[in-house]
Write a structure and sequence with these properties.
The protein is an alpha+beta fold. It has one domain. It contains 3 helices and 2 strands, in the order αββαα. It has a two-stranded antiparallel sheet with strand order 1-2. A hairpin with a 6-residue loop joins strand 1 and strand 2. The protein is elongated. The structure holds zinc ion (ZN). The site of zinc ion has 8 residues, from helix 3.
């Protein structure tokens, strides 16, 4: 049985904010969309953290 590459290694997608390449595997909720050729909006963990940090800063300013 031959397994397709994407089933073993996952797929490469880019972070919507910084453009950093990330790999998602088939367990990822965006995998099916990426496989269909769609461009799911995905944010890498680093940008997620900085986005949360920025949001917190905004709240503290108010
Ligand atoms: Zn990013």
């Amino acid at each position: 049985m031959i397994m397709r590459l994407e089933e073993v290694c996952g797929m490469e997608i880019r972070c919507a904010l910084c453009g950093k390449k990330m790999e998602i595997n088939k367990m990822d909720k965006n995998f099916a969309a990426a496989k269909r050729g769609e461009n799911p909006v995905v944010v890498c963990p680093m940008c997620q953290r900085s986005a949360m940090f920025e949001a917190k800063k905004q709240v503290e300013k108010e």
